[in-house]
Amino acid sequence: MSQSSSRSKGTNAKEGKSGDLKWWQLSLLGIGCTIGTGYFLGSGLGIKITGPSIVISFLLAAAGTYIVYHLLALMTTADPQEGSFCFYAEKAFGRWAGFSCGWNYWSSKILIMGSQLTALAILSRFWFPGIPLWIFAAVYAVLSIAVVLLGTKGFDKVENILAVTKTAAIVMFIILAGIALIGWIHGGNDNRPGIPNGVKAFFPAGYRGFWSSLVYAFFAYGGIETIGLMSMQLKNKEDAPKAGQVMLVVLTIIYVISIGYVVTMVSYEAITEKESPFVTALSSYKLPFFPHVFNAAILTAGFSTMTASLFAVTNLLVTLSKDGDAPRIFKKKLKFRSLPLPSLALAALGLSASVVTSLLLPGKIYAYITTAAGILQMYNWGFIIISAYKVLELKVKDKWLSITGLLLLVLAVTGTIMEKSIRLGFFVSVVLVVLIAIVTWIMTRVWNKSGKTNKQPTP
């Protein structure tokens, strides 16, 4: 997911220039930016936990994602703001909400980068299984930091090309899998599970396993809040809901068909976090080129996504600093490239933590980091829903939608407690939220004493 964020509180988009994006362009952009390593590799965690019922998990996640985007689009249409969801959280509940929302978002993006970094390392071991995970993680972390330091001129154009590459890779899988199932490609597994013929076959891990898989389905749709930010570039802001609806319909079709193929072509027990489930599904067919081409496409696009995330997180901290929500040192930039070195250093520290963790916990690191990142993402989305409930005069239908959305998010988060293999990720997210809450409480007392309960951005 290509991430960019701005939280400037004083700029009303109604007073600024209108964007030039058409709704269908935003939809296509959103599709390319949303499909990432969380889907290509992270979906395997969900399949492994629940089996064929992961298809329902993706449908429920699509419904929850639609609700979040719908409410964010309503707020954007009613009061266009560059700060988007963090601005609306502050508008709804006060400065503490905007502060905690911003830092929760920053923390979630750091974890998502850690998940992406680990995914890249795992995918690279497809060719070099003997090299430790942490070495690949360290190499990709250094390369990503180097790309950011070199500057980002022309990077957006490269991102667009790689977004097409990611989409083409999954379309290639859908076509090849369809042809394979017809029998036009030799090979295949004699014990292919096929279409489930009963409840037990559809829920082989029981309802608890299904519950635990929800967070990974939601994680595959991650980035919808960023598309909400990008909706500010629409020529007609009222088209934001339509753009999101089309994007989610296309994503859901792509996700459900491709995941459906996987669970009918290979047993869910054969899926591991060591390779993409799409590679596993076609591994028994005589397609020697596919694993290498598919893996290379994901690896290339995944690296670009992580680098874009690093750039976005770096600039997000600068914005937090300008808004008075982070130490002033993070506003400082290198003179020769206008790069926020202190902010980049903190983000690099977060990547380093992922490298160290992959050294200490090589077998479970991806599951833990991805779980924690997915949960923090759910917290962000929860902020959006409750902010809309407070800021807008919602119709009865939208009120019911918001309640349904919150329920789905709660199910996704609590489901991680049910599965022992991913439970640590839940506690990591809780620790981060508690730390943010403590800092927010301290800052609230500081603001009250100084009389700065309202935002006063520094120039």
Describe the fold and architecture.
- It is a multi-pass membrane protein.
- The chain crosses the membrane at residues 21-42, 54-74, 134-151, 163-185, 205-224, 245-268, 293-318, 339-359, 365-388, 400-418, 424-443.
- Keywords: Amino-acid transport, Membrane, Transmembrane, Transmembrane helix, Transport.
- It holds the Pfam family AA_permease.
- It is found in: Membrane.
- The model is unreliable at 1-17 (pLDDT under 50).
- This protein has helices at residues 23-34, 37-40, 42-50, 54-78, 84-93, 95-124, 133-150, 155-182, 199-202, 206-220, 224-230, 240-265, 277-281, 290-322, 341-360, 365-391, 396-418, 423-450.
- The protein is built from 18 helices and no strands.
- The protein has one domain (21-450): Amino acid/polyamine transporter I.
- Helix 5 packs across helix 16 (365-391).
- The protein has 459 residues and is mainly α.
- The protein starts with 22 loop residues before the first helix and ends in a 9-residue tail after the last helix.
